[in-house]
Amino acid sequence: MRELYGDAGAEQAEIVVALGGDGFMLQSLHTFLPGKHPIYGMNFGSIGFLMNEFQEENLHQRLDAAEAARVHPLRMQAATRNGSIRESLAFNEVSLLRETRQAAKIRIVVDGKVRIPELICDGVLISTPAGSTAYNLSAHGPILPIDADLLALTPISAFRPRRWRGALLSHRARTRFEILEADKRPVSAVADDLEVRDIRSVDVAEDRSVTMTMLFDQGHGLDERILAEQFVD
In what order do the strands lie in the sheet with 67-71? Predict the structure, then answer.
């Protein structure tokens, strides 16, 4: 691709072309923060929901006709058992996961009000619309339209309350996860590719001060992909 089209370098580039799978697209979104470079991905990996079809031909024409999808990340602030604070952004989801054979016990607080006093589970996650077809969907969470001002809150293998299947939250919601019996039942928090182990609490909210732009081939935009995903066999 460099031989065919050259490489302006990150500083001079108007558009970044990322060759890989969805994991590499997430890595590219983080690498090119705060967002002056639109990113056009081509699938050169195993999973390519966020990527366009790989073709060597007509790259300039495809870029000129591409549709833009603008996404905002979640900002995670995790407090650990030793008192440290870790912050990170997540364009897909923030997930909490048990670290041992013991089920996690997690209290869920939304906008200052306790919504679930004790969730006994393997974990729980909160997803953006762009990430709703990833881990969230595998955990039987809802698929969200890309322009929905919503977040998906989804349990992972909930034991109690057994019938709770999750919730849809406003994008303005501020969610706090408090780990109960943290010493006995350790939990880690993951924001995209950053893992923080042995947490005591995690605060999550959408950060609209950060906007990243992904480019998709005409007629195959992210909103169409998310819609089509709901009608597959």
Answer: 16-20, 39-43, 212-216, 67-71
